[in-house]
Structure formats: structure tokens, C-alpha cells
Amino acid sequence: MISHELIPNNVNLSRNRKLKKALEAWHPKFMKWWNDKGPAYYQDKEIYLRTAVSVEPSGWAHFKYVKMPEYRWGIFLAPLEGERTIHFGDRLGEKAWDFIPGEHRKDLRRLIVTQADTEPASVEQQRLLAATAPSLYDMRNLFQVNVEEARHLWAMVYLLQQFFGRDGREEAEELLYRCAGSQDSPRILSTFNEPIETWLDFFCFATFTDRDGKYQLGALAESAFNPLSQSTRFMLTEEAHHLFVGETSIARVVRRSAQLAKEDPEEDIKRQGGIPLEIIQKYINFWYSSSLDLFGSENSSNAANFFASGLKGRFNEGNRKLYPDPKCLEGTYVLEVPDKEGNLREEHIPLRKAMNAILRDSYIQDCERVMKRWNRQLEKEDYPFRLRLPSVRFNRKIGVYAGHHFDPEGNLLTAEQWERREEEFLPTQEDRDYVQSLMYQVIEPGKFAHWILAPKKGINGKPIDFEYVRM
């Protein structure tokens, strides 16, 4: 069960006076960050939110009305299932660690800080969205995502404060100092500095960028460091809802756009007040390609070291049918890379150095399944347009394709060709202005903005016209 102190937890915080003092000192700074940079306008409203009262399946999704500043953020670790052993890398079969071996301290801190920095960043990016919420249902989902991302920050700060001493305390302070989009102190990863100005941005972010989070957390859940594995495994239970919000919401937008197209004699979705599917495709291109960059370089010595040391595995690393070789000392990963002449050639990367690419491939397969589900919405409307994922080479800023131009099909372009055609592939300012023009707030229970369909069912068995936010 979770102890409901000032900082709810299941880590016996009351018995660890030094850590409790450090976290209680950090708490008011966190609250100042939340009030200054968290969701605007609705901090005094009662929101129908879920929170954890225990980490068991029956307890981690408890629903009730709560004002967001009173949400019970805390530290929840998934329980250990017996004695864990390291199940990949050079230390295969050794006992997993409850404390950090000195030689891995720097690498683990880097992994934890990078993950931690993404959590408050997304809250900051989405700060103003409630003012244009298309329904109370969607507003509530936004706030649920926000409070859970903030709790994920607590999970990472616990690790920093508990296991990294003064360095960890300083890193915890920096997490509240950096800010998404800041010129002086931006977030670590570029995707988390991109503006999220519309609900179409938010839904794409929740689909693609939060899905990257799923795979990064899944890889860290394999870690030989037990507290990191326990923290990220519990975070994954909450992350699933974020993906649900993104995927089902885009499905509602896509189907509504198809309906509006059929209502117009010339299939002019704009004239009917919807979002054209071509524009939705551009937003997909942007957020998907940006999210691919979060996996890092395809050929990475750091990734090889993390794997060899047992710090970070592959997604579902323990599945030996999927990954029969737990050490990856043999074999290569084949990647097409551009050469100096602008041609694509095959490069064979040692498997350990290709761990980022292997993790990214699992992510891509998941995204492809999402695209099929979205296209089924178009099939149900008997509308011929189909959405697609752009090539892994498209619009990349990190990795082997950075510095080169490719179209969404993966064909190499010259700089001049890219400049001439970029507006075909990515949202233009005109596109963004149009989508922004559709963003207006709907707060009558059960009512939805014109450009999006109602969901099939409400949250936690509640009806769609339930008052998810008490206005």
C-alpha cells in the first residue's frame, strides 16, 4: 500500500530521514514550478482524475474529483518479483543491484536525468491548451496526462536524491530551472522544446512522442539497477493512458474529417469547418520524424556501453524468442546510409552499437499498427484517403540521415529540391494558422467542437456527458 504522507510513497520514506528532508525541501519548489508553468487557468477547478492508492492492479487507478494542486504526487515503485538477475550484457546472470556500482554512476545519472527532463517539459509545452479544449472530456484527459507526467518527474527525482547525493540534489534543482522552449535554458532534447499550440499538435505528441517514452521506459525497466527498473515499470502503467489519448483522439479527428469531406460537393473539408486530411498527414510527418530523433544515433558507442553494463536493454529484453542472444557479441545491424556522392549504401553496424536503432525499430512497428487503425476509420467512412508514416530518413536532425534531405518516401533530395517542396511535407504557417482558427473551447458536458467526433465511451464507465471538469 501507499503511505499518504505529504509525499505519498511505498518506499518507507518516513524511515529515511535524510531523503525525506531532501524531498520535503524540494516539494515547495516543485509546487511553485507547477503553479507557474503547469496547466493555466484551471488550477482551482475540480477534475475527475485517477491516482494511485496502491501499486497493485486494483489500486493504481483510483478515480475521484480533485483540484490539480492537491493531486497526490509521490513515489511509487512496482514490487520486485523475487530476486532479479541481470539478464543481458556482459554481467549476464549476476545479481541485480539495489545500489549503484561506482563505475556506472555517471552513465546511470545521465540516463535518469535525460528521462526526467522530458516529464516536466511536456507539461510546459501543453500549458495553455485548456483554453481551447474541444470538450470537457478532452480537457480532463489533458489534465490527467499533465499530473501523471509530473508524478513521473517525482519518480526520477527520488532516484536522483536517494542515490546520487549532492550531484542528484543539484540535478533535481535543474529540472525545475530548465523550461521547454526557453532561449536561455531549454530542455535537453529538441522535441521537448517544440511548441504545442493546438490540440492536433497535442494529439500527435501523445501518439508519437509519448510512444517514444513507452519504449525508452521499457528499455530502462530491463535495467540491472532495481530501483530504476521498479520506477519505470510503474510509470509504464500510466503511460499507456497517454498513448490512448493520442491515438483515439486522432482517430476521432480523422473520421470527422472524412465525414465532412463527404458532406461537401467538392469534398472541401475546410469549407465544412474540419481539418483536411492532407494537413493531418503533415502534422504526422512532423511529430513522427521529430520523435524518431529521440532514439539517438543509429551507431552509438554509448548505447553499446549501456547494454554491455546492463543499464538499458531492448524493449521486452527478457523475451528470448524475440531476442535469442542476450549478449549480442556477434552479428550486425544493416543500415542504408548516404555516402559523400549522395547515394545510399549498406553499412553493417555491430549489434551492440545498434541498440538505439533496434529499439527504434520496435517503436516503428508499433506506430505502423497505429496507422492501420487510423486508416480503418477512413475505411469505415468509405473514404479513399490513407494516412502513412514517412520514411525513417525523412526530416531527421540526429543520426546518419541528419544533414541530408529526403522526401517522405525516403528518396534523397538536393537542398534546392527540399526547399522547393518542403511545404508539401510539413505544416506551413498557413496550415498552422488554419488549424489554430478551429481551436475554440467547448465546456458544455457532452458537447464537442465541430472538427472532432465524440468518443465511443467515457472515462471509468462514466457517460460521455459526465461533468469531467466542474466548471
Describe the structure.
- The strands form 3 sheets. The protein has a 3-stranded antiparallel β-sheet. Strands 3-4 form a two-stranded antiparallel ribbon. Strands 5-6 form a two-stranded antiparallel ribbon.
- The chain has 471 residues and is mainly alpha-helical.
- Helix content is 45%, strand content 7%.
- It is built from 11 helices and 7 strands.
- A hairpin with a 5-residue loop joins strand 3 and strand 4 (344-350).
- Helix 6 (226-263) packs parallel to helix 9.
- It has a single domain (13-289, 413-470), classed as Ribonucleotide Reductase, subunit A, CATH 1.10.620.20.
Topology:
Elements: H1 17-37, E1 46-51, E2 62-67, H2 105-125, H3 136-163, H4 165-177, H5 199-220, H6 226-263, H7 277-292, H8 301-309, E3 332-338, E4 344-350, H9 355-380, E5 405-406, E6 412-413, H10 415-425, H11 429-437, E7 469-470
Antiparallel strand pairs: 1-2, 1-7, 3-4, 5-6
